[in-house]
Amino acid sequence: MQALVKDDTLAEDLAQMVFMKVWLYRERLDAGKSLKNYLIVLSRNSALDVFKSKQHLLMSSTAILPERAAPERTEHLAEFKEARLRILKAVEEMPPQRREVFKMSRFGSLSNEEIAHLLGLSVRTVEKHIQLALQDLHRYGN
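Predicted structure:
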């Protein structure tokens, strides 16, 4: 967990939260499935939730007082804006249908089922477009 968040205290808090969720939902766990994989996915998702909330806080705090931002925060904001522009450019270079599905999913916050319904696609096709879009972004970032 610490490798994901780069902060020992936050990693400990996330680990406690993950084990609390496992304890609370222990009756729902499938004994035939790997607990290790479940813990890995739960940990990764918890870390992503933290990143999303930090991103939201960064965006809202810098939107309110950008002129009074500390130098290190200004540097982080510049890095964030640069990464955002790279992502947007990569999205615009995707094939049209993949781009549309990805935008609806990530920027429009629509579920795969909603996207499938709106575009007249199967849910599996929507899932595949999102998977390919994420691969495109990964390749574009390297």
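Summary: The CA atoms of residues 95 and 140 lie 14 Å apart.
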